[in-house]
């Protein structure tokens, strides 16, 4: 009996250790990645955008290249969302659990605020004032109206999240080039829309500078537009773009497969 109890205690301690390791790998480590990754993305992006020689091209490549590196480095841990809209799209697509999605978004927002505060300390006062603290604002010189800004943010975020779902998550089209493709999609979006809205695509990226630099003009656009874009992208993936193993509802006929549907007629 004594030996049996010893073995049971050993087995119990191993099970407890396994649970702790599982908790760390599946929850704690991904949360840390979202916090640190978002902090680095927003810090380097704002830092480049607010430098003395900062312009749209420099800001676009600072954000895009930083995202490429983070995706390649940490993508296998959390998916490296770094953006509430991406997390929302991935959740709707059925690829992340609701409680983890909520924690991801909280970490992303905290990281965005912290990054904006750090950039405030690193950048000269003149440069900081000139770039409005890195805040995303509508271009009043070109007379961009609120509804135009809303539509722009919707479309660029829709494209961004759609690309992520197709090249990073989809079982059939997943590719090792995902970090490069996603990063350059961000670069292209910023180059396209940066002069009109600042090309946020990311509420966590916009909220931090808004708080630190006290720039709240039309700030709601940078939540509603991107979140709608991420939502529609997730729905479109779940019901249209995804392959059979991930699309909803599941095909009823086992005989029907995508090879027969998409194969060329010879």
CATH architecture: Up-down Bundle
- Structural shape: globular
Percentage of β-strand residues? under 5%
What is the CATH top level name?
A: Mainly Alpha
Q: How many H/I helical runs?
A: 10
Structural class: mainly alpha
Low-confidence stretches: 255-266
Instruction: Report the major sheet.
Output: none
From the 3D structure, determine the CATH topology: Glycerol uptake facilitator protein
- Mean residue pLDDT: 87
Number of domains: 1
The named CATH superfamily: Glycerol uptake facilitator protein
Series of H and E elements: HHHHHHHHHH
Helix % is: over 70%
Rg for CA atoms: 22 Å
Count of strand segments: 0
**In whole angstroms, how far apart are the ends?**
73 Å
Membrane topology: Multi-pass membrane protein
Subcellular location: Membrane
Main location: membrane
Pfam families: MIP (PF00230)
What descriptors fit this protein?
membrane; 266 residues; mainly alpha; Aquaporin-like; transmembrane helix; disordered C terminus; water channel activity; 72% helix
Question: How would you describe the overall organization of this protein?
Answer:
- The protein is globular, with a radius of gyration of 22 Å.
- It contains 10 helices and no strands.
- The longest helix is centred in the first third of the chain and has 48 residues, at 2-49.
- Mean pLDDT is 87; it is low at 255-266.
- By secondary structure, the chain is mainly α.
- It has helices spanning 2-49, 56-78, 84-92, 98-122, 125-130, 146-169, 178-197, 203-213, 221-241, 258-262.
- The chain has one domain: Glycerol uptake facilitator protein (Up-down Bundle).
- α4 (98-122) crosses α8 (203-213).
